[in-house]
């Protein structure tokens, strides 16, 4: 159940101001951990840790492709799943989970375009983004709904 203050612009901007940096902090931690787990050499200009969250090169997203694309894809999926915690603790509104999930996905798309100076045309990246956004929204709604329902006491007498 959302509170009346959840619709106020100042509250929305404050929550977005917390969620966006937290989202990218989680993203970079996951990217570094996965890059280290896959022994990815990110000391050259082709692969930098700070660019992996925004990686979408089509030629690398194939079964025999390199680990850089796999790390980028896995990190995107894992981060959107972990962002459910952001929805639960920061958004804390069942009705607003979809809004914040879509806003995060939109911001991530804009930042990805800005970092790469290119528009992502990779279908794998887009399908992953759409499904991850839907999953984040759904899990955010479910977790917030469960918390809201916990407060309701049913007296069977």
UniProtKB/TrEMBL annotation:
Where is the chain membrane-spanning? 12-38, 70-91, 98-117
Give the domain of life.
Eukaryota
Q: Which Pfam families match?
A: SYS1
Q: Which UniProt keywords apply?
A: Membrane, Transmembrane, Transmembrane helix
Kindly give the membrane topology term recorded for this protein. Multi-pass membrane protein
Whose protein is this, by species?
Chloropicon primus
Q: Which InterPro entries match?
A: Integral_membrane_SYS1-rel
Mind telling me which GO cellular component terms the entry cites?
membrane
Where located? Answer: Membrane
Protein name (database record): Transmembrane protein
Q: What is its main location?
A: membrane
